[in-house]
Each structure stands twice: as structure tokens, then as C-alpha cells.
């Protein structure tokens, strides 16, 4: 577009240097003429300005997309603090920027000196040319010099862009303390959550202990495990109202003894119930037969206590699928230690 720019700028120059007597006597006319010339110059160069605006807007997009934020518009008195400014200048980032500025100045200055030295004869020859020819050659020299200097900047860009991206993502990284704080804000403080879980366990344990007096039978291991079962009319199947191992098992036995709950020592059944049945859940169908024999024994025991007669025989060899029976702990103390 060299011809277009030369033609438009010639008209601007001619209009600007045209003599008018009023310009020497009336400052208002001078200001109006200056405004007209400036406006004509802007309109003459609008394609160049448009290309520069597009380049300035598109460059951030190709680097890391656009990021719109109103934070820069908010007042910040720290920007006026000279100590903060000195800190930024003498920081590690400030030293890096200073080094880049020195390299840029040296590279651009060196290339510019080389271009001028190479074209010195043509530059000196511009004074002997006509205005039109001189402007055209000058525009050609300026465009060629600009392209050469811009091409030299590619060397800096090739090193600076990866560094800027690395620095940007490095600043986004959080410290360990920031990660911990974010986890606390998102999921709650571990201390508070731990305290809540502890309170929930205590509340569940209290509910479990309060349900033991209403149990029909407590099946034991005899000391490792204790599982309290209850069955009432309307239930589809017997339900586990309390269970525990070690210290909790002893506490279940203690409460059951105080309230006269029947006991049955059946280690395989106790381990199976403890392993496969959740608290306040009904027993699975695979244990119906075994639990039915236990409850039948409990009802016979109640009849014996109220009416007398022959003492019922506790059931042995209950029908329990082998795959439901977990191995027994090696030592009773181990179970108590694990539970404690």
C-alpha cells in the first residue's frame, strides 16, 4: 500500500504547508487548520492503524486466549507505594525483564545500525530526488528496515514466549499451605470433619447400646464378637440391633446380662453376622435357617424360665454357608487392641 500512503500523505503535506494570511493573524484559524491536518493524517493511515489493532488484539488470543477482568480498573493504593515499586524492580522477575530489555535493545540497535550502514548511500541520495520519488523511496526503505528489525525480534520471541508461558503457569501453582486451605474450604477442615465423625460414632454407639435391652438374643464368639438380634411381628426377617468386637463386644455382653437377654455361643454365626450384616439391617436369606434355629431355642428358653420343664438344648452345627464365615482372630487380645 506504499502508493496509497504516499498519495494521501502528499495531500496532507500540501494542505499543511499551504500559506494563508489568516494563519499569521488568527490563532483560532491555526488551531482549526491543525485539527483538519491531523484528522486527514489519521484517515490517511487508517489501514496501518487497523492492522496494528488487529495484531495487538489477536496476539494474546493465540498465546493463551483472552482473559477479561475488571480488577485492573479497581483502585489500588499499593501501586503508588514506592517501596512496592522498588521491590518489583529489584525482584527476580525485574532482573529477568531488565536482561530481556538489554538484549532487545542490543539486538534491535545492532540490526538498525547494520541497516542504516547498508543503505547509507540511498539515504543520502534522497535529498537529490523529487518530493514524490523521495517519499516513495523513503517509504520503501522504512518498510524494508521495519521488516528486517521485526524479523530480528523473532529470536527474542522464540525464547521469551516459552519463558512467559512457563512463568504464567508457575504463578498459577499453589503452595502446600494454599492446597491445604483450599481443601479446607471445599471439603471442610479435617479437624472439624474428624470431630463430626467422632460425634456421629458416639451417637450411633449410644443408639446401639440403648437397643440391646430390646434384643431377643446375643450371639457370641464367645469373646471376640457379639451380635444382638431382635425379631418382632411385622418384620420380614430378624434384624441386627447391635454388634461389636473386642471391648465393644464385652460391653454388649455386659448390658445384655444386666437386662436378662439370652446368650448363645455360636462362633461361626457370630462372625458371619458381624462381617456381612450392617447395623439395623435385616439378616440375608442365606442365614435364615441358622437364625431361625437360634430364635426357636430362645423361645424355648423363655418358656422354660416361665413354665419350667426340660431345659432346651442349645443348637449346634448351625447351617451356615462356609463362604460367609470369616477366619477367627488369632488372639483375643488382638481383637480388643484393634477395636480400642
From TrEMBL:
Name of the protein described by the UniProt record: Flagellar biosynthetic protein FlhB
UniProt subcellular location: Cell membrane
Summary of the function given for this chain in its UniProt record: Required for formation of the rod structure in the basal body of the flagellar apparatus. Together with FliI and FliH, may constitute the export apparatus of flagellin.
Chain's gene name: flhB
Biased composition (Low complexity): 331-340
Organism: Oryzomicrobium terrae
GO cellular component terms given for this protein: plasma membrane
UniProt feature, compositional bias: Pro residues: 313-330
InterPro entries, per the entry: FlhB, T3SS_substrate_exporter, T3SS_substrate_exporter_C
Amino acid at each position: 500500500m506504499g502508493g496509497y500512503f504516499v498519495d494521501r500523505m502528499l495531500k496532507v503535506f500540501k494542505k499543511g504547508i499551504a500559506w494563508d494570511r489568516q494563519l499569521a493573524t488568527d490563532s483560532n484559524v491555526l488551531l482549526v487548520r491543525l485539527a483538519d491536518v491531523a484528522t486527514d493524517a489519521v484517515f490517511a493511515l487508517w489501514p496501518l492503524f487497523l492492522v496494528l489493532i488487529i495484531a495487538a488484539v489477536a496476539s494474546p488470543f493465540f498465546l493463551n486466549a483472552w482473559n477479561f477482568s475488571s480488577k485492573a480498573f479497581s483502585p489500588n493504593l499499593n501501586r503508588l507505594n514506592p517501596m512496592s515499586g522498588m521491590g518489583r524492580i529489584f525482584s527476580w522477575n525485574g532482573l529477568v525483564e531488565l536482561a530481556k530489555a538489554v538484549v532487545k535493545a542490543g539486538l534491535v540497535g545492532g540490526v538498525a545500525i547494520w541497516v542504516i550502514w547498508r543503505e547509507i548511500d540511498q539515504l543520502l541520495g534522497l535529498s537529490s530526488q523529487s518530493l514524490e520519488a523521495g517519499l516513495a523511496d523513503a517509504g520503501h526503505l522504512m518498510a524494508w528496515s521495519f521488516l528486517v528489525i521485526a524479523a530480528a525480534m523473532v529470536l527474542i520471541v522464540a525464547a521469551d514466549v516459552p519463558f512467559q508461558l512457563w512463568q504464567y503457569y508457575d504463578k498459577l501453582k499453589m503452595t502446600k499451605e494454599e492446597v491445604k486451605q483450599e481443601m479446607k474450604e471445599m471439603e471442610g477442615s479435617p479437624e472439624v470433619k474428624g470431630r463430626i465423625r467422632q460425634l456421629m460414632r458416639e451417637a450411633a454407639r449410644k443408639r446401639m447400646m440403648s437397643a440391646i435391652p430390646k434384643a431377643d438374643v446375643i450371639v457370641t464368639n464367645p469373646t471376640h464378637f457379639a451380635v444382638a438380634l431382635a425379631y418382632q411381628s411385622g418384620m420380614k426377617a430378624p434384624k441386627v440391633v447391635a454388634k461389636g468386637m473386642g471391648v465393644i463386644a464385652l460391653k454388649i455382653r455386659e448390658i445384655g446380662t444386666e437386662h436378662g437377654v439370652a446368650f448363645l455361643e455360636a462362633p461361626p454365626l457370630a462372625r458371619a453376622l458381624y462381617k456381612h450384616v450392617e447395623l439395623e439391617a435385616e439378616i440375608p436369606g442365606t442365614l435364615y435357617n441358622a437364625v431361625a434355629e437360634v430364635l426357636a431355642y430362645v423361645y424355648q428358653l423363655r418358656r422354660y424360665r416361665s413354665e419350667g420343664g426340660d431345659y432346651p438344648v442349645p443348637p449346634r452345627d448351625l447351617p451356615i454357608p462356609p463362604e460367609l464365615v470369616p477366619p477367627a482372630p488369632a488372639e483375643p487380645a488382638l481383637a480388643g487392641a484393634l477395636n480400642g
